[in-house]
Amino acid sequence: MAAGEMTGATEKRSAELKVVSGRDLRHDRTQFTDAREERLFRSLDLDNDQRVLRSDLERILADMGLRRDDPRLTESMTALDAYRAAHQPPAEEPPEPGIPRDSFCTAIRHNILLIERALQGDMVIPDFGEFCGRIDRLFAESLANRNGKAADYIPQLDLKEPELDRFGLSLCTIDGQRHSVGDHDIFFPVESACKPVNYCLALEEHGEDVVHGFIGHEPSGATFNELTLNKHKRPHNPMINAGAIMSSALIKLKDKRENSRDGTLNALEARGWSGARFDYVVERWQALCGGEKPRFSTPVYLSELETADRNFALGYHMREQGAFPPDVDLHDVLEFYIQCCSIEMTTEMLATAAATLANGGICPVNGVRVFNTETVQNCLSLMSSCGMYDYSGEFAFSIGLPAKSGVSGVIMIVIPNVMGLCTWSPRLDEHGNSVRGIDFSRRLVDELNFHNYDNLTGRSRKHDPRISRVRMQAIHVNELIWAASKGDLGAMRDQLMRGTELSCADYDRRTPLHLAAAEGQAHIVEFYIERKVEDGAAIELNPRDRWGGTPLDDAYLHGNKAIVALLERNGGCRGNLSHAEGAGDSVGAPAPQAESHKTAELIWAASAGDLKAIRRLVAQGTSLDIADYDARTPLHLAAAEGHLDTVRYLILQGVRAGPRDRWGYTPMQDAERHGHTEVVDLLARHAGRRKSRRRQ
């Protein structure tokens, strides 16, 4: 290249870097990639051609529930757009340009931590697509419930068909993963769902001691609009109408007093304060919802005001008892409370607000802190005990999650440290709660272990979406098998106490008893026999693995005579396996054993042909050449199950072609035994290329 051409190329590259990063990178040493960035690039480089596709990255981000317009990804997405614009060849339907390592790493560096977590599957719900499928199914089941009626005592909420039959659901995790189904984009009044937020605003302004000098924190044991106060002549809690009116009285009260000259109030000095106060509440809701601004429904407000006799009665009753702070304008407070109830949002917005509470007050979609953690803790405690009207005790018992309902049909649910959920359906039960919302909540906790006390023992019969499917298998199965192979009886007893079945089996149908017999762990075999005597048929002493082998076969194969005698005395029998013949013509050596959760996850993923899970583990830096307790590698399992795409990916990633397992077999021999001819051909071609390269 001539000097002039080189100078031009250098200037072009510098200009591209400046476009990509938004700053001049000509002297920025950070453009060199590091090991973490290399892992992310490698996980996307399916063909190992040192280029990745932007569409692959976007697909993975979408699969993880991250939206293309997520503000936390703006810089990297803009950088990738700039690269495509600079390198897209002119054509009617141009092919997508592959992005080389340096350009890709430079682009993602702006939002590296979020992208890294997405590629590694390190989000609160790792199998997000599978989880959303469950949510959609539960939603459809609840949709069939047509019981209940609208809140006919408020004219604007007395909906008729087809509006009465609307049903929407949205969720947002603390990592900003979002999903919606049904009528999720229709605005509706929040009604009593405003009560937790108004309580939080009062706490932020005055502190816990002051607020609870005016409002109690115990369930009332009465309906939400009961004309009653506690023994201190204060509202029972901020989640019923009396307490919510009191919370409203406290919001921006300091500002109102500070605006007066001498600490007293008059109408002229307070002018404009009411509007500013309402703007403040809307702004806080907007922050909770990740930046999307709520609406206000004047018809709902007027309808509420016309039917607010009970709320006015509550206000006068509290004023009569001296419950309000000094200088509070009762009519202004009541109108403000009704205004707050008339704010309109969608389920998507309220799910994000609930996720902000689940995240300790930090909005997950933009990282903005809205409330202090202590404020959220107090709010969730009261939502748990008082948030569902006079159904709160039953909801806490059966659902076990903080929630707040409203007579518009909304239920805002918080799963602390996991996600926020919002359902909306105007059909109400006798308590004023959404029939479908309650129905969905029951189905949710019946299937998924989200109830506060589901994990007391560390195990649950329910599915835990916070743990990926392959990791769940690795934890529940391989951990027990590994303990058996090492003779760790204490760990096995602990697993048994926590509900793990002793007869569990791995991807090769190998059980802990197989490994105990193979490794000469006589006391583990004795433990199984003891459990067999106690539990009868619940413990199988002759389970058969993939090749028909029993634990007694393993004991014979490895010359463990004491275990042979022990099993035979207690009904052990031989299988029809061919392991003992070995595979003398096998090439290569056994792969290094590196048993860990990642090893087990990787091999489970390979056995299922789950490329998505394998790529996540590559992004985490997991070696693809590691092996389990039987020296079985991911390539062995992918070949044995006939997963052609997985075998191809592993080969292109450079795994060893002929590792031997415990019995001396290679992946190609696994494929041959199971009749997977395409896999055999692929492995044979790969082996031929490797031999050719070695001769050269």
What does this structure look like?
With 696 residues, this protein is mainly α. The chain folds into 4 domains: 3-120, Recoverin, domain 1; 155-447, Beta-lactamase (3-Layer(aba) Sandwich), CATH 3.40.710; 469-581, Serine Threonine Protein Phosphatase 5, Tetratricopeptide repeat (Alpha Horseshoe); 597-695, Ankyrin repeat-containing domain (Serine Threonine Protein Phosphatase 5, Tetratricopeptide repeat, Alpha Horseshoe). The strands form 3 sheets. The chain has a 5-stranded antiparallel β-sheet with strand order 4-3-10-9-8. The longest helix is centred in the N-terminal third of the chain and has 19 residues, at 3-21. The radius of gyration is 32 Å and the shape is globular. The model is unreliable at 1-30 and 580-589 (pLDDT under 50).
Q: Which keywords apply here?
A:
696 residues; mainly alpha; Recoverin, domain 1; Beta-lactamase; Serine Threonine Protein Phosphatase 5, Tetratricopeptide repeat; 4 domains; five-stranded antiparallel sheet; 31 helices; globular
